[in-house]
Every structure is written in structure tokens, then in C-alpha cells.
Design brief:
The complex is a heterodimer of chains A (300) and B (293). Chain A has 300 residues and is mostly beta strands. In chain A, 11% of the residues lie in helices and 53% in strands. In chain A, the strands form 3 sheets. A 12-stranded antiparallel barrel of chain A has the order 1-4-5-6-7-8-9-10-13-16-17-18. In chain A, strands 2-3 form a two-stranded antiparallel sheet. In chain A, strands 14-15 form a two-stranded antiparallel ribbon. Chain B has helices spanning 6-11, 14-23, 160-163, 270-275; strands at 41-50, 53-55, 58-61, 66-79, 84-98, 112-125, 129-139, 148-157, 171-178, 195-201, 204-206, 211-213, 216-223, 227-228, 231-232, 235-248, 256-268, 281-292. A 12-stranded antiparallel beta barrel of chain B has the order 1-4-5-6-7-8-9-10-13-16-17-18. In chain B, strands 2-3 form a two-stranded antiparallel sheet. The two termini of chain B are 26 Å apart. The chains are: A mainly beta (300), B mainly beta (293). Chain A binds chain B through residues 29-35, 37, 39, 65, 67, 69, 87, 107, 113, 116, 139, 141, 259-262, 300, and chain B through 34, 36-41, 43, 45, 71, 73, 75-76, 93, 112, 115, 139, 141, 143, 251-255, 293.
Chain lengths: 300, 293
């Protein structure tokens, strides 16, 4: 139901790494054109979508690919414009996938492919930061959930010039579900949800790797974290504003700098999530979650 | 159930490359824009629309419109001047979205009829000979068919150096279904794993503003590929097509883009005719846009 907790933040880390190796890259850029490829494959023990538990059994593999088209660049004002298309996927070997016939989830047909998302982003970069508008279609090939459609706005602040190594890289996300009849919502609730996320991603970069420590909180601006406090026959959906708090640590290590195959990296992360009333209920009544993930990624 | 549309197969990989080499007007060397992607990764992508989807002669859908988005990443592993000229690894996804009976108007009411993942290892030899080995997982997100797993070998010869404009570019394909059960994991929904043979040629003509290709092929069963009521019929289908591709004038830094269209005629065998509601012929019209970067 979402893009990854770790890999989403890897773009920042990768960006830092690319900047670090900029001199070599400038000399040996394998791809100076206007198209950029980004790919990742991650393994994780738990898949939480904005605090909403999707699966925490066995191993989950999350391959993704994105193509970015640079439309414009300048030295002042609107510094860059790009259009990005991508696919993010979640393959489950446990209850939501290969063991769904015994768990009774989704199609109950033991199919691996729990989620396939398609997204398109228009990204604008300014001196002060960036603004992105993303449409995402969250789909489930093994019928683990109803399709969800969403428009998301993200503003990311660039405070690195002012704060240098103490930069926080703050961001704000506002996302809006639409076309939500018959439970086509992340929470399976009664009304279309409006989601708000506030976060920072301070980090440290060195020659041989980088560390990022993202902290974020997910909130409902309206009906995003609905919980049925009635019965199945007489539902009473109550929206709880606090969704979750997340603190993570991510280490990224580049592999051999930039090659004719692009810039590759290994990365790993640990994330802790503290859940709100609705997300705790979705997590079998447990208010906390630990997530471990690792993978390989490239930018070309 | 098809890893690439006919048009995409003939246009998006080889033809786009050809377009890049032959179709675009050739400015003086000094004016040639720099290669936007001199590295070892190549992206090809296409989106096609069609009125009929036939997989190796087996009708999948012929109602309303189908949309076929596809993307492929190719890794160049080796290139040299010896007997082995090149080695490459490809990963790709091909998809079929149906607005008719197999999609939005099916019981599931879901658009996404097919999603294929494939990986291919190909070798290029001296004399224009190429050998490719491809693993494909054909899956159906809207449960239109059971997953099919296949290994395919393709031997091709680019005879343009010898025959020039009369080159036929012949090829042969042998494909083997695996991990099957009666009615499960097979293109024909038959009792036994199928073995498929395809023989074809792809002559063509390239001009400064467009190219034409005329692929002709025949699909045969080497064993249980076209089963009907427990009987395997050898002849699957015969196909003849005409494809035109026109390069688009976009800045070179975005790669080579084209628009393309094609018409295909298929003469069906006994099994494929039965799958086509008893009609022995099929005409397919398709068109789309492609990118090679």
C-alpha cells in the first residue's frame, strides 16, 4: 500500500552519495542525457503502510523501478522540473502472499504478489526546496486489498546551505484518497481519507557511506485512520487523528562508485513505529513495531 | 500471455535501434548531438493500443480496446571483435490492460488482464548470429488465466551484410512450459506441458523518414502446445504483418522516440480456430509510441 520506509529515504541518501562522488561522475558519466533510472530491491520482515500493518510474517521482497525525465533546469528561480514514472511492488512469502490460503487473507490462493503500485510525479525544485505532486494507484494482484487511488503533495525544504551538517531536510506530505466507494481506502473505512505527514531526515555523509536518521509522524486530516468501533452489522467508524510516529536509522554504502552501469549501493535500516489507536488495532492490539530491512539499489 | 506485442517486438527493440541508426536524417558528424546514454544500460519502452490480443494464435480477447505498456532494461555485459561480439542481460515487464470482456467487463471488472516478467540472456556472434535464452512468468492480476512459466530459446541471423536490402533476418524460437499441471500453467489450458516452435522472417525497408517491416511467421507445436480435447494439433497459426514506424523529432537527450502502427493477418489451426469461436482467420490492428534510450 505504499512505498517503502527505507527506500523512500534512500533517494536522499543516494543523492548525498552522488554529490560526494561528483568529480568522478562528471568525468565518467554513463548517462548525461535527460532520463534517469532508479531501481531497488529490498527485503524486510514487516510491511507497514503509514502505520497500517499489511504483513509481518516471513520475508517480504520489495522491488521497484523509476524513470525520471528532466524537463527543465536553470540556475535560479525554478531550478528544475521533472516528470517521474515508477512501479513499486511487494512480494510476500507469508500470510498475505504464499501462505494466504492458510491465513485466509486476500484471494486465499497462495499468490506471492501482494501489491503493485504505479505512480507518476511532477517534481519542481527551487532554491528553498522542492514541491512534488504524485498520483498513485495502489493495486493488489492477489486481491489482498481494494485498489486505492491517491493524489499526494510533498514539500521538501532544503536547509543544507543554512545549517550545513546540521541540516534537517524537513518535509510535509498531504495526501488525498479519491474514488473511494466500497472500501477503496487504506483503512478500509467509510469515507475518503486525508493524510498529513511531517518529517525530518538529518544525516551524515562520509567518503565510504552515509547515515540518515528520518523521524516522521503520520496524522489524519480527516477519515484517514478510521476504526470501526461498532459492529460488522452496525459499523461506527471513528477517525483517530494520530496515526503513528516513526524513527529510523539507515546506512547506505556505495559499491565501487559510478560505473558504466550507474551508481550502485547496499543499504540497510532499522525502524521503530509507535502506533495510534486505529493502527494499534490493525496491529493486533500491539502499539509498537520494529522493522528491519536491507537491499541493493542503483541510480543510472 | 505474450511477452511482446508484434509491433513492439519488431519496432521497439530492433527497429528503434534501427531508427536511431538509419531513419533519422544524418547530419554532418560535427553536428551530431552527443550520445545521451553512452553507458551500459539501455531502456526501451512502448505503449500500444490494439483491437485483438492473440497469444501465439490463441485468442485472449477481441472486444473493445486493449492497452499494452511495456518496459525493458538491458545491461550490456560484453562487447568485442572476436567470435563472440556481445553479451547482454535484459529485464522487462509487458502488460495488457483490457477494457472489454477479459478486463473491465469480466467477472472481476478489473482492467489488468496480464502482467509478464521476463529476463533474457543474449549472445551475439560473428556473422550476425544471435542466441537468446529467456525466462518468462506470465501472470494475470485479474485471474484471467493461471500463471504460466516458460523458458524460450531464440536463434536469429541478421543477414543484412550479405543480402543488403533483401535481407530476410530469419529466426527460430523453441519454448518450453514448465511447472504445469492439467489445466494449470499452460497457454492452451491443456493436460500436458507444451513445447512451442516458431519459424519466421522479418524483411524490411528503411527510408529517411520511416521504415517498413513485413514479418511472416508460423507457430507450431513440438508437443502438447496446441491441445484440444486431449489431442495435440501441430499447426498453430500462420501470421503475416506489415508494420510502419516513423521516428519522432524529440531532442536526442530524451532518446529515440517513434510512432508505429501495424496490421496483422493470422490463419489459425484446428485448436486455435476452436479457441477463436470457430473462426479460422483473425485480423489485428495496432499502433503506439515507443522509446529507446
Amino acid at each position: 500500500m505504499s512505498r517503502r520506509p527505507v527506500s523512500a529515504l534512500l533517494l536522499t541518501a543516494c543523492g548525498l552519495l552522488l554529490l560526494m562522488s561528483a568529480p568522478a561522475y562528471a568525468q565518467n558519466d554513463p548517462n548525461p542525457g535527460n532520463l534517469t533510472l532508479i531501481g531497488n530491491i529490498d527485503l524486510t520482515n514487516a510491511y507497514m503502510f503509514r502505520g497500517i500493518r499489511q504483513d509481518d510474517t516471513r520475508v517480504i521482497a520489495q522491488p521497484s523501478a523509476e524513470i525520471d525525465i528532466a524537463l527543465q533546469s536553470a540556475n535560479s528561480g525554478l531550478r528544475s522540473t521533472s516528470l517521474n514514472f515508477g512501479s513499486w511492488n511487494s512480494l510476500h512469502t507469508g500470510d498475505a502472499g504464499l501462505e494466504s490460503s492458510s491465513s485466509g487473507l486476500g484471494c486465499a490462493c497462495d499468490k506471492l504478489w501482494y501489491e503493485s503500485d504505479f505512480y507518476a510525479t511532477l517534481a519542481l525544485a527551487f532554491k528553498a526546496g522542492s514541491l512534488g505532486v504524485t498520483y498513485t494507484a495502489y493495486t493488489s494482484p492477489n486481491a489482498g486489498f481494494n485498489n486505492v487511488k491517491e493524489v499526494m503533495f510533498k514539500f521538501g525544504g532544503d536547509d543544507s546551505a543554512a545549517l550545513k551538517k546540521a541540516a534537517l531536510h524537513p518535509w510535509v506530505i498531504a495526501a488525498f484518497e479519491f474514488d473511494t466507494a466500497n472500501g477503496h481506502q487504506a483503512d478500509g473505512g467509510s469515507k475518503a481519507g486525508k493524510y498529513l505527514e511531517l518529517g525530518v531526515a538529518p544525516g551524515y555523509s562520509a567518503a565510504k557511506g552515509s547515515v540518515t536518521v528520518p523521524v516522521k509522524v503520520g496524522l489524519s486530516m480527516g477519515n484517514y485512520y478510521e476504526l470501526n468501533e461498532g459492529t460488522a452489522a452496525r459499523p461506527d467508524f471513528v477517525d483517530h487523528a494520530f496515526g503513528y510516529l516513526s524513527i529510523a536509522g539507515i546506512v547506505t554504502v556505495p559499491l565501487k562508485g559510478t560505473t558504466p552501469y550507474g551508481a550502485w549501493n547496499l543499504h540497510a535500516g532499522v525502524e521503530y513505529q509507535h502506533l495510534g489507536t486505529t493502527t494499534e488495532a490493525f496491529n493486533n492490539g500491539k502499539p509498537n513495531k520494529g522493522i528491519v530491512s536491507a537491499g541493493i539499489g542503483f541510480t543510472y | 500471455m505474450l511477452s511482446k506485442s508484434l509491433v513492439s517486438k519488431y519496432v521497439c527493440l530492433p527497429l528503434v535501434t534501427a531508427a536511431f541508426s538509419f531513419l533519422l536524417p544524418r547530419p554532418a558528424v560535427a553536428q551530431t548531438p552527443p550520445d545521451p546514454n553512452p553507458g551500459s544500460l539501455t531502456v526501451t519502452s512502448s505503449v500500444d493500443l490494439t483491437n485483438v490480443y492473440m497469444f501465439r494464435g490463441i485468442r485472449q480477447d477481441d472486444t473493445k480496446v486493449m492497452i499494452w505498456p511495456a518496459a525493458d532494461i538491458g545491461l550490456s555485459l560484453y562487447s568485442g571483435d572476436g567470435a563472440l561480439k556481445s553479451a547482454a542481460l535484459d529485464f522487462g515487464s509487458w502488460n495488457s490492460l483490457h477494457t472489454g470482456n477479459a478486463g473491465l467487463k469480466s467477472a472481476s471488472k478489473k482492467l489488468w488482464y496480464e502482467s509478464d516478467f521476463y529476463t533474457s540472456f543474449s549472445l551475439g556472434f560473428a556473422g550476425g548470429v544471435s542466441l537468446g535464452t529467456t525466462y518468462t512468468a506470465y501472470t494475470s492480476p485479474n485471474a484471467g488465466f493461471t500463471n504460466v512459466k516458460e523458458v524460450m530459446f531464440k536463434l536469429g541471423v541478421d543477414d543484412s551484410a550479405k543480402l543488403g536490402k533483401a535481407a530476410l533476418k530469419p529466426y527460430g524460437i523453441a519454448a518450453f512450459e514448465m511447472d504445469t499441471a492439467p489445466g494449470v500453467g499452460q497457454a492452451d489450458g491443456g493436460l500436458k506441458a507444451g513445447r512451442y516452435l516458431e519459424l519466421g522472417v522479418g524483411p524490411g525497408w528503411s527510408g529517411s523518414k520511416a521504415s517498413l517491416t513485413f514479418p511472416v511467421k508460423v507457430g507450431l507445436s513440438m508437443g502438447n502446445y496446441y491441445e484440444l480435447d486431449g489431442v495435440d494439433n501441430k499447426f498453430g497459426y500462420f501470421s503475416a504483418s506489415g508494420i510502419v514506424a516513423v521516428p519522432l523529432k524529440v531532442p536526442a537527450s530524451y532518446g529515440a522516440w517513434n510512432v508505429h502502427g501495424g496490421v496483422e493477418f493470422q490463419q489459425l489451426g484446428k485448436t486455435t480456430k476452436a479457441f477463436n469461436n470457430g473462426d479460422a482467420q483473425k485480423v489485428i490492428v495496432s499502433g503506439g509510441i515507443g522509446l529507446a534510450y
